[in-house]
Amino acid sequence: MDREDDYLMLSGLQHFCFCRRQWALIHIEQQWAENLHTTKGLLLHKNAHDESKNEKRGDLIVMRGLRIKSDKLGVVGVCDVVEFKRDPRGIHLNKYDGLWQPYPVEYKNGSPKDNEADMLQLCGQAMCLEEMLACRITVGALYYGRIKHRVEVEFTQELRTHVIRTIEEMKGYWKRGWTPKGRDDKSCYDCSLKDICIPELEKAKTVDSYIREMLKNQ
Fold it and tell me: What does the CA dihedral 54, 127, 91, 87 come to, rounded to 10 degrees?
């Protein structure tokens, strides 16, 4: 991926980790549908991205809707919120005296998940910021609207490696233009794309399997 036009969307990390088919439908086939969950998420992010609410409060600078990219990873995206905390180990920022340490915060409508989907997206944001600002970011936070609480995430080497490997896998799907098969479980029925994906077809018998079963029973 030599051109920025070919960079993948960083937000796709969360989609891809949750369901590879969902990611491909959105990012390869350009399909989308809204439901209650996506509408709530859109409203939450609209407020988080409001750049008019950038502010400085003492030793804290809050920047919203910060556009980011990584040439190393081949991704582009937008951070919901990046807080810059005054820190002697931090970096210089234009228009502000002193040194500041970046702290990315990603907003999610639901509650903490059992998988690493949200953590991967947040860690990917930190890796982009590190490349852009020439710094090291060790922690960030996920804010969940359902519990109205932040969950701090440590950007371990294991999590960073997972980000890199996942993006490489995403690039493979992207280059092939391939939409994989889905799954049929409880999480499918909260997905806004369920009527496009039709997950119940995954349990349907193929013609070949039906014929083999009929011949076996004769």
Answer: 80
